[in-house]
Amino acid sequence: KEGYKQIALAKIVYLPVVNTNHPDIKSLLEKGIRVDELKSIFFKDKGDAGFKPNSNFNVLTRSACAAVSFSSFLKEDIKTLVNDYDKIENDSLLIDLVAKDTLGITFLDPSNIYDINTGKIKQGITVLPIDLNNNGTIDSDENFYADRKVLIERLKKDNIELPSGLLTVTILETEKASFSKYVNWVKEKGDLIIENFGFLPLN
Question: In sequence order, what are the residues at sequence separation of 6 or more whose Cβ sits closer than 8 angstroms to the Cβ of residue 104?
């Protein structure tokens, strides 16, 4: 938009999240899910193309920036994104709905999944682990979701490709120099701050 500029601050990853009391939680955590299998759960008319979930889910999503990035990464049309609920206004409501629905599933970024103070997964939800080597089971080196710091370090170390997008800030081109300097400082030297919120540095 004319008169504004957008600055990318960090990378955001999106992880599948289910209710901790899902009827198939034991199997889901043992077997996990492949990235390409996410399509069959979150997008309409994808089940016939390959993977069909063995578990039942109530899919809860929001038509927000996260949905755009999630759809784009998986090369799907956001218009086919499934939502089995009425309009969900914010991420806090989305988390509450999944935590109250034993069949609930959604995708969230780590800043919403993990408690900011403890770094542990919030009550009532858990991350559905990704089967990175597609062998049908979650190996010990694929199970790194219980703690936010461990997650971020693993994603940084191995450059694991997961649904992702960019955390950006939009400011006026005429914004005060002091504010622009702060934004650039966060981008260039604020890795610890970024990671504490569950985001990944760009460099």
Answer: 18, 19, 22, 57, 58, 60, 97, 98
Residues 66-89 pLDDT 10s: 899 999 999 999 989 988 777 788
User: pTM of the full predicted structure?
Assistant: 0.87
Torsion sign across C-alpha atoms 200, 31, 68, 83: negative
What's residue 25's pLDDT?
95
The rounded distance, in Å, linking the Cα atoms of 98 and 82 is 14
Number of other residues whose CB lies within 10 A of the CB of residue 136: 10
Residue numbers in the chain where pLDDT is lower than 70: 1, 46-54, 176
Phi, psi for residue 150 in degrees, rounded to 5 = -65, -40
CA distance 131 to 83: 24
| Residues in contact with 116: Cβ distance below 8 Å, sequence separation at least 6, in sequence order | 196, 197
Can you tell me the distance from the alpha carbon of 169 to that of 166, in angstroms, rounded to the nearest whole number?
10
Cross-strand bridge partners of residue 12: 165
